[in-house]
Amino acid sequence: MISLNFLNSFGRKLELFNPIKAGKVGIYSCGPTVYGRAHIGNFRAFITADLIRRLLEAVGYEVNQVMNITDVGHLVGDGSVGEDKVLLAAQASGKTALDITEHFTNIFFADSIALNILPAHHYPRATNHIKEQIEIIIALEKNNYTYKITDGIYFDTSKYPAYGELSGQDQSEKLSGARVETGDKKNPADFALWKFSPVSDQEATPTGTQAIALKREMEWDSPWGIGFPGWHIECSAMSAKYLGVPFDIHTGGADHVAVHHENELAQTGAATGLRLANLWIHNEFLLIDGGKMSKSLNNTYTLSDLAQHNISPLAFRYLLLNAHYRSQLNFTFESAQASQTTLTKIQTQVTTWKNEVGGPVNYQTHPLWLKFMSELANDLNTAAALAVFHQVPKSDLTTSAKLELWLAMDSILGLNLAALTSNNTNLANQVNSESGQITIPAQITALATARANARAAGDYVTADQHRATLTQAGYEVIDNPDGSYALKLNAI
Ligand code: AMP
Ligand code: ZN
Q: What is the 3-state secondary structure (H, E, C) of 204-256?
């Protein structure tokens, strides 16, 4: 098996990847907070995780990938105070929290398919794992790492000497940080494990006045009272449930190093004595006009915005491949358009080659394949690997071998070139080879629902984009006169 090296944010060194169990890899990727549509900056994080997973699979590992869906507890500002992003979105639109999270989770799945991101093996939702989160807080309480203040139960970072081990920041640096909110907390870096539902001022009763809990739309009972979990605890709980502790690889964007992942590490470390994950991989930001693309800065684009500029999701994926995941990348429509032009040329080349069959296809020992893999094995250097990819057309290989080599390379790059060579390719993993039964994958159903919703809301750009993605995946959508629709499997 080819050896892979990655830069581990934990220790900031390039390390040889060494799985916990031979031949198997567990990956936890911090997923979307589903209060709005994920923007293309978020998708840089999810595509980086997808590339890592595809590379591991290409060299022969069996991968188990978990991506959480954050549907409660992520507060505005990412700290321990402020409104819950999901509840704010629900209030603003007059919908329930569940309506909001289901809607944006479906859109997230649809966008992921369009970007040819392989589905994770598990997509656990925070609201379905309250019990597991409470269990960790109980363990932390037993080990004396918690304290209670007016708005919740907090983690005492001063009791965990290793706190700061991921970001390299020590407590005194956190203290001197300008934007740290402290309130009643003992230390600025302390964070909420469990937040209490807000309490009204006073309520008049026949015997006097008393404080009553305000009904929050998403709240649960706990040993500490009615409330909801802090954001960080969901990842400690759900990664442990689906992967065990420690697991191999934890991914996320660079903004998660100093707070979210530091806190995940501290919680699990203090509760179990174990380091949550061995290898921590963080992608750098997608920028816009030189600054971070982020919903709170109101400077984001989604795949619909790209579609309006005739830029396909796969052209955006191609654009990302041009930069190393640890370099910042400034997004411009000009560079995205250039990516679209190059991708179209690649696709045309594939369809031309497809019709020129014949000749030996042995490429596995060819220097271009070996070079391509060695670039990716060197901390996922997609930019260098892409340069090798572009040398293939001019190489000494036969046409068949060139095509096979590109398809092999693309099994990691993920531009879905295989779809151009066969109508059946995308269906391969949906057919149970023993029973011959076809199961419509959850993501396809979610995409069809998202399309119907977009159509009903008059958002025809999004609806058409989803239809195109479904067609590419082999499904035709048939709209009935009564407004219902059917999915027809086109090719098998
Ligand atoms: P969120 O939905 O806010 O939890 O973010 C989902 C993922 O997107 C996280 O891994 C973030 O670190 C990542 N992320 C957010 N903004 C950007 C950006 N501009 N560029 C790259 N990754 C980002
Ligand atoms: Zn997380």
A: EECCEEECCECCCCCCECCCCCCEEECHHHHHHHHHHHHHCCCEEEEEEEHHH
